[in-house]
Amino acid sequence: MALLTVDNLSVTFTGNNQRPVRAVDGVSFGMDEGEVLGLVGESGCGKSVTSLALMGLLPTRGVEVGGRVHFDGTDVLSLPSRRLRDMRGSQLAMIFQDPLSSLNPVVPIGRQVTETLRRHKGMRGRAARDRAAELLDRVGIPDPARRLTEYPHQLSGGMRQRALIAMAVACAPRLLIADEPTTALDVTIQAQILDLLGELARSEGTSLLMITHDLGVVAGLCDNINVLYAGRVIEVSSRKQLFASPHHPYTAGLLGSVPRLDAPRGEALTPIRGSINDTIDWDDGCAFAPRCDHYTMECLTGTPELVRAGEGHQHRCVNPVNLDPGSAHADRPDPVAEGGNVR
Amino acid sequence: MFRYIVKRLLQLIPALFGLSILLFFWLRLLPGGPENTLLPDDASAQQREALRESLGLNEPIIVQYGLFLERLGNFDFGNSLQTGRPVMDEFTTRFPATAELAIAAMLIAVCVGIPLGYFAARKRGSFLDSSAVAGSLLGICIPVFFLAAMLKVVFAEKLGWLPSAFRLDAGARFTEITGFRVLDSVLTGEFDVTASALGHLILPGLALSSIPLAVITRMTRASVLEVLGQDYVRTAESKGLQPTVVRTRHVLRNAMLPVITAIGLLTGSLLAGAVLTESVFAFGGIGSFIYESTQQRDYPAILGFLMLIAIIYVVVNLLVDLSYTLFDPRVRVR
User: Where is the ABC transmembrane type-1 domain (chain B) (predicted)?
Assistant: First the structure.
């Protein structure tokens, strides 16, 4: 049975006197025990909001959450806050983007690790401290006993992220959500942290949900990848298939905009036109259409469905591409001029 | 740490030196002089001149300043012109009253302001929140002397709930040890005196606390609101910690940092605010004495008192800065 099932999850922010903003618009995916899943998309596509919704960490005021999230058979979204707290940190854990701002600046690292152990494992005093030192050692922090007494500002960026990881894995959670865990780090440290996460997930059998905008991050780590665009999953695939033959033009565009070492000298990167703000409502058609090089009028007739295109490979596109991410249609109609509802 | 304290105290010397120059020459710019206030109105010109001469006021002002500095080297601020007693003695007998009042006011401000600001932030937009915001605006706007007079009229004179003046009930017997009446009476076990001293502190304490209370409430509210949106609070919640742990260890500890700095700065302003409050309640601290001294052109007393207040202000701020290092490891001194 799947460990995590997300079914038609939607998150809408309803500010005072403001038009509601739908950040996540019917996201569905599943994760098996021990699976490493990548959730990929650019800024503003709903990745982080999805992860916060899974953890039950969204603010209660001004946010409407719809759909279902089942974790090990329990409906997370309808769980009373007390039960949810019992689950957070022990069954479900999360690693955040910016390790400096995610650590409490006035509490020693050790205390921030032991408070989780104390809460969920009932460990006290020396036992908790010893376990915390073991955890720091496990995530590759040298001289862990000394580090326990230090404060976040005394650690380097990479060490801080390792400490956050130690806190997250302290109670051996079954699902670890990592929200852009390497974005705030140096490139050299990024690789180390990714290796550590992959190694932890595989050795402990923890499922890892890797949320990132960086295809390079998922390339080396994830078994399967979901690509998100404007609050919806637009492509589901194994890592191998996705990189070999992306079906959705957006995925193809993302891959085309990644620098490659084996590209000929002087070849320019191919960016995706426009920004995520150039979108239309999913109800009116494909949200990516205004930026797409492959769209036809068919793209503007209602929501495209997620369709199967091979073993474990799905895409939400009426004009899927296969192997040639660079090809462009010459005489494409302008979806805005054709009456598409541009948000 | 020790070096830091010594450094801070050494910094005090040039500051006090500058302050003494400023005050010394400034005071002399005030019209009139002690010969007009100390002598009866019908005193002759010769008598006035003789007094000026005997006080050394006819020397060139630079020489007077030099003499002042020379005495200062021996921690001697001279004698008060009004009472004839050494300024230092006048200060030490009066300071406990002001300190007691300032401490009472600060305790009220901290004990009410921090919880009020915290809950206003937690219940942002609620009735409690808007009342706290409006109330603190009022607290800053109302002049202290006006508030003091109103409290005195309503609670002491009309309702008669609390005493209207002095530090103790008339005829109360007490043993003086430190001059802090509440402390002394607790030490000697004279608890009826403690009760009386506390009762006399309530109204002036409330009046004097209005500004620090308003500032602390506002600062706590703003600071808690800011901390509630910080990533580390979300991290703490993602660990499934109990709400009380999140609120105290993660929210309140961080939110208190700017408030502590504010408390240090406000303590200084309390010494100034005490002048007015003490006058209204005839409290007999340094405030009313400074006021009297200014009226009488009691140069040595004003100068000495203001410089001693400056020293106390610096020491209090040093203590606050040192306590700050306990709360914020990032500024810990080596």
Answer: 95-324
Residue B314 domain flag:
no
**B9 has pLDDT over 80:** yes
Chain A residues in contact with B231 (beta carbon < 8 A): 96, 98, 101-102
Residue B195 reports pLDDT greater than 90 = no
The number of distinct structural domains making up chain B is 1
Nearest to B239 among A89, A101, A108 (CB): A89
* Chain B neighbors of A87, CB-CB under 8 A: 240
Q: DSSP string of A176-212?
A: EEEESTTTTS-HHHHHHHHHHHHHHHHHHT-EEEEEE
3-state secondary structure of B236: helix
Cβ-defined contact of A96 to B234 (cutoff 8 Å)? yes
Q: A4-222 maps to which CATH number?
A: 3.40.50.300
**Shortest distance, CA A150 to any CA of chain B (angstroms):** 9
Task: Concatenate the DSSP letters of all residues of B316-328 into one string.
Answer: HHHHHHHHHHHH-
Task: Tell me, yes or no, whether B316 lies in a domain.
Answer: no
- Judge if ipTM > 0.95: no
By CA distance, what is B239's nearest residue in A?
A89
Closest-CA residue of B relative to A88 is: B240
CATH number of residue B265's parent domain: 1.10.3720.10
